[in-house]
Amino acid sequence: MSTLTVTTEDVADFYSLEAEHLDRADVTGWLDLLTEDVDYRVPIRVVREKAGKPVESDFSHRGHFMWENYGTLRTRVLRLESEFAWAEQPPTRTRRLVTNIRRRDGLGGDPEHDVRVLSNFAIYCYRGDSPEPFVLTGERDDLLRVVGDDLRLARRVVYLDTNVLGTHALSIFL
Amino acid sequence: MTTHDERPRERVDDLLAHMGEDLERGMVPAEVFNDKSVYRRELRQIFGRCWVYIGHVSEIPNNGDYHVRRIGEDPFIFVRDEEGEIRVMLNSCRHRGSTVCRTDAGNTSHFRCPYHAWTYKNDGTLVGVPARPSGYRQLDLGQWSMISAAQVDTFRGLVFATLDPDAPALEDYLGKFRWYLDMQFALTEGGMEVIGEPHRWYIDADWKSGGENFTGDSSHTQMTHRSLLETGIASEAGAGKTGKAHGLHVNDCDGHAISMRVMPPGVESCFNYPPEMQELFTEGGLSEAQLDLVRRGVVHDGTVFPNLSFIHFSAKDDVEKEETAFLSIRTWQPRGPGRMEVWNWTLAPAEASQEFKEKAYRAGMASFSPSGTFEQDDAIVWTGVARTGGTLTAELQDLRFNYQMGMPGMGSAEPIEDWPGPGVAWPSNSGESGLRTFHRKWFAHMTALPRASRPSSAAAGSTSASTSAGEGAS
Ligand code: FES
Ligand SMILES: [Fe+2]
For atom 3 of ligand 1, which residue has the closest CA? Predict the structure, then answer.
């Protein structure tokens, strides 16, 4: 596989596989989908007067809900797999819907190996015995790297729609 | 059904009637963590009277910089005006109350109301009203400035405001606890600086659960944060394992309280600040006794009553890397009975390099933030407290929670006699004395006489902004 032969269907398959790992609380399996130099960020949205063009301008440059590399993500996974990570014990039941997949070929990353993709997501999170989910929605700006016959996540910036989290804790991956 | 001419005695009155005695016995009524009548009363008696944290001076470095903040549930604009003066003004138009500023933050010289375009300078003065010649020939603009908080003042870069014109001066309100705040906010000459924008998130828990916890709930660490011990993300000293560091609790410090874990005398830890930064700590003006507690410091956490807490600590975002020092401050904003919004800021000494500030930010975010490996689990346990507080069983059985740990007759520790600082210090973290201080202060405010009603100055169109010019931030 090369960046030239990656199809939109390949990208969609990757996101489905990723969502499957996360929705089944297989966080270790999810880690395997990342490159070891992964850069993963969830910047804080700040509501300002001049909205939204480009989307990044609504977000803090320094403030993040998550600002991760492979080592820190592995550390979070290690904690989640201990018996005592109460925020995810019992685990949040999640359902991730990924849509509006848009290729941005050549715009970002190394064109030899990386495909830049924008997508929209909705994550429904059920906790305790509440029938009402917390819903997190937003846009993801990813670099997917071609590694052999597979795709791996090399960079992700998650642009949340909300500026205030309604979720008690951000104990899941987006 | 209640009759219309007699206000019914509310549940909060019943609870307060026996709470004085409860506190003597180390108990707190469960319902104070989730009851409508308690909540309404505390908005007035706590958030209408106390000094409440608004923001840090480093968040508004330039004239015109502003953020929208809260006192209780009321929205306020925290702004540096064109003269450099810090203002805290109700985010509301003097014409008919529409919201003047509908963003989180920004920079502006004026606020213009989207309803009928009344326009205010960023010091709150009304400067523009459309159709003046035809509709408002006698309107005295000077009488219609934005409403300011009754008092605004700053301590060590921390800006506070109060709605009570009769509240004591901020310096007296913080009182002797300033000795402990200095150790967090005046390590260096430049003081601390906020990094980035605050985290904000909702928890279905009462704001007091956060406030009381940070005064020194040392005994929850081993259980609530056990995942971090098991995985090695938290060090044994940091997590309060006995033998590694001493626990120190200081309570009754003018209503505020702090908990510390420090290394034994002569052993340095200094929150894992790098050596080149530790050298600067002698320039912040701290006394030898304060410096000693900083040098031996593993963690200092405390609460300025009612809802500002801090934790000075060090954490790892990667289990295979070293810990990095950071200071986190947070407010527990009431957002309804059994519900709060947490605001969290990470700080580092102003003199630190950009590289260090980034590392400190990431360490703070990784441990104390909505995604923080410590804080995620705190949020979960506090929701249970509010849930219980809201049960009918709590009311029918007059349920009290237990705050007796370390009380006379319970604890083996005695107060330290030659303690160099203010307050009552205990050489042990097997106690809940700080939590009892918190609830005693709460009880005192809840049962204090309500502010005398005074002639309504707002209705008479007084110039509150001009009042604040005299009192403004220092
Ligand atoms: S309410 Fe603001 S101008 Fe009328
Ligand atoms: Fe905790």
Answer: B116
* Ligand 1 atom at shortest distance from the alpha carbon of B118: 3
DSSP codes, B76-102: EEEEE-TTS-EEEEESS-TTT---S--
Please tell me whether the peptide bond between A90 and the residue prior to it is cis, using omega within 30 degrees of 0.
yes
- Within 10 A of B344 (CB to CB), how many other CB atoms are there? 21
Closest residue in A to B319 (Cα–Cα): A75
Q: Which of A60, A168, A171 sits opposite B203 (nearest CB)?
A: A168
Q: Are B210 and B330 in contact (CB under 8 A)?
A: yes
Residues with CB under 6 A from ligand 1: B 93, 95-98, 113, 115-118
pLDDT in tens, A94-149: 999 999 999 998 888 888 899 999 999 999 999 988 899 999 999 999 999 999 99
Give Cα A55 to chain centroid, integer Å: 17
| A8-38+68-160 CATH | 3.10.450.50
| B167 dihedral zone (left: phi>0; alpha: psi -120 to 50; beta) | beta
Q: How far apart are CA B192 and CA B350, in angstroms?
A: 5
Alpha-helical runs (H) found in B285-432: 288-295, 354-367, 375-389, 392-396
Whether residue B164 is contained in a domain is answered as no
Give pLDDT tens digits for A30-60. Answer: 999 999 999 999 999 999 887 656 777 889 9
Sheet hosting strand B119-121, strand order edge to edge = B110-112, B119-121, B126-128
Distance from CA of A30 to the nearest CA of B (A): 18
Question: What pLDDT, on a 0 to 100 scale, did the predictor assign at position B283?
Answer: 86
Q: Does B57 fall in a domain? A: yes
Q: Is residue B10 part of a domain?
A: no
The nearest alpha carbon in chain B to A82 belongs to B227
Give residue B315's domain range: 175-446
Please choose from B89, B93, B111, B147 the residue to mutate so as to test ligand 1's pocket, defined by most ligand atoms within 8 A of CB. B93
The domain segmentation of chain A, as residue ranges, is 8-38+68-160
Q: pTM value? A: 0.94
Q: Could you count the other beta carbons within 10 Å of the beta carbon of residue A110?
A: 10
Residue B185 CB contacts under 8 Å (≥ 6 apart), including other chains: B155, B156, B157, B158, B191, B192, B327
What is the residue whose two structure tokens read 């500030």? B357
